[in-house]
Design brief:
single chain, mainly alpha, 1 helix, 0% strand, elongated, NADH_UbQ_OxRdtase-like_20kDa, iron-sulfur cluster binding, NADH:ubiquinone oxidoreductase-like 20kDa subunit domain-containing protein
Length: 61
């Protein structure tokens, strides 16, 4: 059924940041996915903070 015409994958509708393997997923897999997501968000936050510092210091835009 996974390749049926009436099945839509989540990744085709919403952006997916991380995957959790398993059916049902093991608790360790869920924790690992949350840790990966946390690291990705930290990197995004650092990138935006650097942009804000550049803008406030009068750097070129």
């Amino acid at each position: 059924f996974w390749n049926s015409y009436n099945i839509v994958k989540v990744k085709d509708v919403l952006p997916v940041d991380t995957y959790i393997p398993g059916c049902p997923p093991r608790p360790e897999a869920i924790l690992r996915a949350f840790m990966e997501l946390r690291e990705k968000n930290k990197e995004k936050l650092r990138y935006h903070e650097e942009d804000d510092q550049r803008d406030s210091s009068g750097g070129e835009t």
